[in-house]
Design goal:
The chain is an all-alpha fold and 405 residues long. The chain has 19 helices and two strands. It folds into four domains: 4-102; 104-221, no CATH class; 228-240 and 261-297, no CATH class; 357-405, no CATH class.
Length: 405
């Protein structure tokens, strides 16, 4: 008999390692999402009992794959339509070979692109990705996105139905569509990361899931630089997480305690970024990661390479035009060329109305005005930002700045 705690630890580790692979290969062979998830869950439930009795297998992933396949075969045999499908999918009956778990990544890649197909609503892509690839429960996804569980369940049901009814192909898109579809996949992963990158403990698990999935994508697409760029960006942001807030109040970059930044994550993020840049096809995520690396590797704000950051933002604005990118570039210009130069760019954005209602526009303007000694104007801008701030942490920070003025 194996101790229950050891079995639980082994099952938890296997769940993390092979859930997405296992579901992906079952979906690939049966084209039945619910059947694949049910059989995968059954396999893990069986492991909790069998491994305690018979011991933990040397290759847990292969054991789970075999068990899930057998459950799928049994389910199909009991169903008339399933028996037809079973004859068409005779390959399902084969026992997994020694390297079966390692051969699944192609299926997992197909699953990522299917979950993130542009025909699905964006919210459904996010939910489906977390459910099928990361193995989060419907309740966990609903809690993370502050949505009622029945609502999230319906979202998942509709997404699976859409895939079946619209005949969305279970495949990696052809080369001529890869760039467009890869961008959609990366956008989903980055949204998942950002949803978890806040002060709410209940949502922080999302950042780990996003980093994990970005790592999977980077490994499965070794000749594509942007998945590595996104992974590097996530790692570099995650390295600063512990210092972003203090007692529920937002802490700006210049005031963060850099001795508390996770140097291991920074080292990993820079290494992944170097791998992406070595492919010599720069993209938006690589540029954002390069900006994050400039911040993460600088000893302090004063010695940060602000001219380099301004240049990177200029290139980012060329590749992915955005008023938010222009706002960030204005800050970098202010730090490298002087406050008046940065303020001029911010005022241009405000006059154009491109960021109306976006709290960081008046917040940025207020900060630059404060640095320039224009206190009365800074106070008004901080008040505007406070009215628009979406989180309590930001409101507390802006309130403190007002008090200081």
């Amino acid at each position: 008999m194996t101790r229950p705690d050891a079995v639980r630890a082994a099952v938890d580790a296997a769940y993390r390692d092979v859930w997405g692979q296992l579901v992906a290969t079952l979906i690939g062979q049966t084209r039945d999402w619910d059947l694949a998830e049910d059989c995968a869950q059954d396999a893990f439930a069986a492991a909790l009992v069998t491994w305690q009795r018979d011991g933990i297998p040397n290759r847990p992933g292969a054991w789970l794959t075999t068990t899930a396949r057998h459950r799928a075969i049994d389910r199909l045999r009991r169903d008339t339509a399933g028996r037809t499908k079973l004859r068409e999918l005779a390959m399902l009956a084969r026992e997994p070979q020694e390297s079966s778990v390692q051969e699944i990544p192609d299926e997992r890649l197909r699953l990522i692109f299917t979950c993130c197909h542009p025909a699905l609503p964006f919210e459904a892509r996010v939910a489906l990705t977390l459910r099928t690839l990361a193995g989060l429960s419907t309740a966990e996804i609903a809690k993370a996105f502050l949505t009622a569980e029945p609502t999230m369940a319906q979202r998942l049901v509709r997404a699976k139905r859409k895939i079946a009814e619209a005949g969305i192909p279970y495949r990696v898109p052809p080369a001529e569509l890869l760039g467009q579809r890869l961008g959609a996949v990366l956008a989903v992963l980055y949204l998942i990361f950002n949803e978890g990158y806040d002060e709410q403990d209940s949502r922080r698990a999302l950042t780990a899931e996003a980093i994990y999935l970005a790592g999977v994508l980077a490994r499965l697409m070794p000749t594509e630089p942007e998945p590595r760029g996104l992974l590097a960006l996530m790692l570099l942001h995650e390295a600063r997480r512990a210092t972003r807030t203090d007692d529920g109040e937002l802490v700006p970059l210049e005031l963060q305690d850099r001795s508390r930044w996770d140097q291991a994550l920074i080292t990993e993020g820079v290494a992944v970024l170097d791998e992406a840049l070595a492919l010599r096809r720069p993209g938006p995520y690589q540029l954002q990661a390069a900006i994050a690396a400039c911040h993460a590797t600088a000893p302090d704000t004063a010695t940060t390479d602000w001219p380099q950051i301004a240049a990177l933002y200029a290139e980012l604005a060329r590749l992915a035009p955005s008023a938010v990118v222009e706002l960030n570039r204005a800050v970098a210009v202010a730090m490298s060329d002087g406050i008046p130069a940065g303020l001029a760019l911010v005022d241009e954005l405000a006059a154009a109305g491109r960021l109306d209602g976006y709290h960081l526009l008046p917040a940025t303007r207020a900060d630059l005005l404060r640095r320039a000694g224009r206190v009365a104007e800074a106070r008004l801008a901080y008040e505007q930002a406070l009215d628009l701030a979406p989180t309590e942490a930001e409101r507390r920070y802006l309130t403190r700045r007002l008090r200081e003025l």
